[in-house]
Design brief:
The structure holds three protein chains of three kinds.
Chain A: E1 6-11, H1 23-30, E2 36-42, H2 48-61, E3 65-70, H3 73-86, E4 94-98, H4 100-104, H5 110-128, E5 137-140, E6 145-148, H6 152-162, E7 168-171, E8 186-187, E9 192-193, H7 194-207, E10 211-214, E11 217-219, E12 223-225, E13 228-235, E14 240-245, E15 247-250, E16 254-256, E17 273-275, H8 276-285, E18 298-305, H9 320-334, E19 339-344, H10 354-362, E20 367-370, E21 379-382, E22 391-397, E23 402-408, E24 410-415, E25 417-419, H11 423-430, E26 457-459, H12 469-489, E27 491-494, E28 499-501, H13 511-515, E29 521-524, E30 529-532, H14 542-546, E31 552-554, H15 559-570
Parallel strand pairs in A: 1-2, 1-3, 3-4, 6-7, 6-15, 7-10, 15-26, 17-24, 18-19, 18-24, 19-20
Antiparallel strand pairs in A: 5-27, 8-9, 11-13, 12-13, 13-14, 16-25, 21-22, 22-23, 28-31, 29-30
Helix pairs in contact in A: 2-3, 5-15, 6-7, 6-12, 8-9, 9-10
Chain B: E1 7-11, H1 24-32, E2 37-42, H2 51-60, E3 65-70, H3 77-86, E4 94-98, H4 110-122, H5 126-129, E5 134-136, E6 141-144, H6 148-158, E7 164-168, E8 182-183, E9 188-189, H7 190-203, E10 207-211, E11 213-221, E12 224-231, H8 246-250, E13 254-256, E14 265-267, E15 269-270, E16 282-283, H9 289-293, H10 298-302, E17 316-322, E18 324-327, E19 331-333, E20 350-352, H11 353-360, E21 373-375, E22 381-383, E23 392-399, H12 414-428, E24 433-438, H13 448-456, E25 461-464, E26 469-473, E27 476-483, E28 488-494, E29 496-501, E30 503-505, H14 509-516, E31 543-545, H15 555-575, E32 577-579, H16 587-599
Parallel strand pairs in B: 1-2, 1-3, 3-4, 6-7, 6-18, 7-10, 18-31, 20-29, 23-24, 23-29, 24-25
Antiparallel strand pairs in B: 5-32, 8-9, 11-12, 12-17, 13-14, 15-16, 19-30, 21-22, 26-27, 27-28
Helix pairs in contact in B: 1-4, 2-3, 4-16, 6-7, 6-15, 11-12, 12-13
Chain C: H1 9-12, H2 29-33, H3 45-53, H4 56-60, H5 64-67, H6 73-77, H7 84-99, H8 104-110, H9 112-132, H10 137-173, H11 181-197, H12 200-203, H13 208-230, H14 239-265, H15 269-272, H16 276-301, H17 309-328, H18 333-353
Classes of the chains: A alpha/beta, B alpha/beta, C mainly alpha.
Amino acid sequence: MEEQRIGVYLCWCGTNIAKMVDVESIAEEVGKLPNVVIAKNYKYMCSDPGQELIVNDIKEHNLNRVVVSACSPRIHELTFRKALENAGLNPYLFEMANIREQVSWVHTDRTAATRKARQLVKAAINRVVFHEPLDKRSVDINPATLIIGGGVSGLSAALEIGEAGKKVFIVEKNSKLGGHTADIDLTYPYMYSAGQMLDSMVQRANDNPNIEIFLESEVDEIFGYVGNFESKVKDKNGKETELNFGNVIVATGLKPFDAGKIDNYGYGKLPNVVTSVEFEKMLKTGNILTKEGKEPKNVAIIHCVGSRNPDYHEYCSRICCMVAMKFANQIKSALPDSNVYELYADMRAFGKGCEEFYSLSSSKNILFLMFDQKEGLPLIKKAGSGDNCDMIIEMEEKLSGENIEVPADMVILMVGMEAQDNAKDIAHQVGVSMCGNDFYIEKHPKLDPVATTTDGVYIVGGCQAPKDITDSVSQARAAAARILASIAYGSVEVEVTTASVNEDVCCGCQTCIKVCPYTAISFDEEKNVSVVNEVLCKGCGTCGSTCPTGAIKCKHFTDVQILSQIEGLMTLEEV
Amino acid sequence: MGENNLTGIYFCFPKNGNTDVVDISEVASYAGSIPEVTVTWHSGNLPLTDINSLAATIRNKSIKRIVIAGDTPGFEKAFFTKAMVSAGNNPEDIVLASFREHGAISRADTERAKAIVACAVFGVPFDLAAAPDESDVNTETLVIGGGISGIQASLEIADSGNMVYLVERTGTIGGHMAMFDKTFPTLDCAACILTPKMVEVGQHANIELMTYCEVRGITGTPGNYRVTILKKARRVNLATCIGCGTCSEKCPATAPSEFDEGTTLRKAIYIPFPQAVPNKYLIDADSCRYVQEGKCGVCAKVCPVEYCINLEEKDQEIELTVGNIIVATGFKPFDAKKIERFGYGRFPNVVTSLEFERLINAAGPTGGEIVFRTQDKKGNWIFSPDSNKPKSIGIVHCVGSRDENHNKYCSRVCCMYSLKLAHLVKEKLPDADVYEYFIDMRSFGKGYEEFYERIKGEGIHIIRGRTAKIEEKGRQLMMRSEDMLNDKLIEQNVDMVILSIGLEPRQDAKEVAKMLGITTTDEGWFNELNYINDPVSTFTGGIFIAGTCQGPKDIPDAVAQGAAAASGVLKSISNTKIKQSVKDLTLDKIESQAKQLTNI
Amino acid sequence: MNNRVDPDFIKSLNKFGRKDWNACMHCGNCTAVCTLTDRGVLFPRKDIRTLQMGLTSKLATSVEPWMCYYCGDCTDTCPRDANPGELMMTLRRWLTAKYDWTGLSGLFYRSFTSLVIAFLLVAVAIIVIGFIKKFNQADIMHFGHSLEFWMIIGVFCLILVPNIFRMFYFTVIKPKVGAPFGSYITGFFSLIGNMFTQVKTLKCDKQSLRWFEHFLVVIGYLGLLVITVYLDWFGTINQIIIYAGYITGGLVFFFTLLLMFSRLSKGSQLTKYSHSTDWFFIIWLFLMGLTAFLVRVFIDTGLLTDHFWLYMVHLIILAQWGILLVPFGKWTHFLYRSFAIYFSNAKTSGLKLKGQL
């Protein structure tokens, strides 16, 4: 083996690490280890001067391995790898020891923490000795994009990419584009026409030669990897079309909560209890009538149906407060003599222009009554014969502490949004993960809200979490940006720490194929061995650990690397 | 034309007495001249109360389509829908001519309002008729503002292989997000997730980072903007500065640190914060004794690098040509001094949320320890690591927001950051009592409601009833609030109060808008092309807006908007053609384009 | 049925005061900013809530509107411009109408015309009596004197006392407050004290000058009342009484003039939204003081016989004041406020006993 010249850097991270770990003493100690040429400590390794330190030392001292002990590699591994590249060293000849999240942030005994950190640094030093240079890999990008879902999110993304001159396929399961937006009359807070907006978007999509629309169709399983996907689209008659595309945008949206699950509200039993979806239809057709064909004098709107309730869904569905107020305004316009009651838990009018909308709505004599779901849902009952209304809602009004009765001829339930019935299936087809509520998970909740851990697959709109049209459009365009950029760039980098099978050792048991979560391994019938598609492979290591013959080598996670790391961790030296 | 297109138009007159509005009478008389229009009404001659009489009129005049025109005509639509159905017509034949939707807000926009009505009458979507011509586009982009939105937009465009100039007013990129401690709801450390992006920007081959620069003027047309940039005199050579810090050590002049929200002092020659990008020193002319009085000059004397510090450096002007501009200039925090009864500025231990973020930040004045604010020998208010720790902290929501006397709008992020701060207080001071007073809890995003539930379970007193005033009571602060759910009046004595201040447009927002040729709301938030389906474009071609300069929002939404704006830019580059400005379209042009679309 | 919400009720309150209380979003600011709120006495938000929901029977049990002295801080700081201060004033008018068994208070608040007609009727009645007595000075002045006397007794026994009992019924008996009997005894002295000093006003921010002005008007008014009715100011020759009458009369019309100016200039919150009844009250009080003062001046300068119309005018004003404005107008606040504190203290004792406070 070549001579090891290791540079070790310990970061203070301001006081984040230095408070609990004596980094200076560790630097001194490890500096004495064999193969360690340099051991320094610095306040902020991730800053420009910190990286310059590494770059200069590599050049000056001819380092061929670098260890940085600092925060989590999830944060700055890429930063330091780039520093190595800048100095002309292969970025994989680098190892990070996490002495912040794994040590200083979770321990309170400075001596013990320092000892633990020192072991982690030694483990990293041990390991890095066995690192091998790995070359970057890029793949070409097919400039076509597949968009699953033709609602407002999918449509926005399609228009953005299609109008940029790139090919787009929209696959929509219904017979027309627009999704739930097609059923909406007006949008809050300025009461613009959703129909006019959507008509314009659909016309643009239909007129655009780059956008190919498959209605009443569904996507079959998607094979391939970023830049090079393929799939079949099946329409309602069974006709199949093969598609090739470079990126996928999942815009499958959400569906309304089934209000029948809540007994208190009598949905399905009391005829004049309707959902928000049903009411929107009434608004569109101009027939705001009870089942008996009369105009309601009293309309009650109940918020948070199925949301913010651990018995149904814990999360907030984000838009219902605003939609409910929108309804209230429309009712007041159509039926000026009616009384409108909003039964709410918190008024979530947070968007631009929305608080003003709330203020405006209050002035229209719309009565806002507060309830607390945890203390008991309002109860809708049929009114007595003496009452001059159809139903009575009993509730404890929290802002006054009074138990009140609200007369209602019609009750609108603001049902929350939940994942589609086939959310799991689609997730499996495209290779995205789901969180507890069956929403799709983004790569990073803050800084990468539309990408996923599967390169080339993006999630936008409701399927990521409930949101309104404006935020859906932003997300759709954000995904479009990433895709347009990658198409413009022409290629995309893929993971290099992949697995590979040693054909001589492989016994053909196919265990690895069964356990691979990315379906990256296929079987070569002729040679009777497994073959890893290194572009699909994410380097998770499952196959390597399951292989009974040890035929699979996981680059950058070889046995010798891991064992030496463990040795470094476990070997205590006298201090 | 013909019988099938007979249209009636109802004009909604503005209700709030504002005088700088579209001239509706002028629009109405214009509309009356369109052949298909058979009758025009307004609130004076058609009160919206009698549906039957309107239905009868519709039938009698054989009206097949109704256009409702006004600032936000949708509010009256339901009434007309009923009338149309009653008259036996198709309710879908009601078209809204929403002036506000298409940016016709003030008197100067009257021509555009006419165009909006014309399109409605012809049944053509306004945005399709108001399609500007296209022209060539320079592939370089200017991003104004180096906060998280600007950073995201820059990276998205730079990764495509195209050049970006990122202009940032202060000495470093990072914006407000760099000041935060942990971010809701995941509680990741803001600097940790931000610094990798900052580093990426600093090192990206396709991003020219221009810090300590301001945009001074813009001329030209979409696709070909000539931008004048003021390169403020940093007085420190970016290329040769090694960041040793000797200059700062010896500098005798101090000023309140902007990055620490005034809770610490920095020197006149300083680096804004340790992970700044670029990580170089700069001299603040306003506090430098040499620049102001011609005295001192110590920094230049002690600097180990020859010619690195040039105290005589002057501001320079640079010209750039770009095709697109993304404005991501951010917000400014509400000045809590405006609300006297909260005692901010009078009582040292009434702090704003931003000041508190710096206090609990490990890189802040006390290394992250929560301590009382005290006075130093010179009478300045400081957070000293040696001070005692408070045993009780109160948090007041909606300071300056949702308030007709200050800002009417909701600042969107304060409920969540207040919950976060309450949690962080408990984390650092487990035995402290934390009281949070709110009006409505707006925890609406993904994972937000779950976060709220988690905070409720941590022993924090969350009370519905916003504190009305704060008074001194001995050494403590008394917060007076109504606990509405328990029907009590609370006079809670606490050691420290955190005011959850709202977000406001920056002081110069309206000037910047004017310079760019875009419009703002009354408060100063930049106006988007269409609130619903085009939140990042503007009426000016090639100019996009992203982040909090468009309106208050949290980090995920700001990032999404930054990327969405980038998409708009990449679209034009990909097409090699850029759309000119919608605002420059004349009534004639829109009318003729609309007519063409009806003939298809 | 009692707790059935009625959103139309708020519209019917328009006649009593015109402001948009629907705008209230229940932030809790007003109740907390008010210096007069305390344990068990929370206002104005709770009353706004009751009002928005139209729970009129609950609203009638509320004493909180009387506890408010209209400093206007709540209105100044209300983030929705919902004007809670004016609501308290409006509720005071509404409650006055509610307590009044004759229904005339309500009538006069709702219908300005009816108030004007009533004023004219009284004026006509006095003139008719004048005719009958052939405008004989001695006769009429004697009549005037006994009218004052009987008016006070009549109004007190027939209107004010029954109305106070109605107030008691609404605020204590109907909501079953359960106040211990002892609290009525112990509270009695502070009742009298409050009545004559309205000392609670002082606790209300920035109101010391206003309190002082009102205090002087009250002293002047009560003094003038005693001096004219019981000491027969217009008939006496006792110099001390005559001068005392001048002083009290002067106090009345001078300070009411000041109060009128401030209502005109609309300086503070409470003067911004004057109801017509507010103006009648203050103008008539001013005219009462002024005309009484002038009558005595005319007597002392011997002008009265030739200018007897002045006394007629004074008598008309007096009659209108005593028969209309005192029992049915703002004068009643003098009593209701103090009784409100009295009943409220009783209520609080009741709640304390039950352990609810």
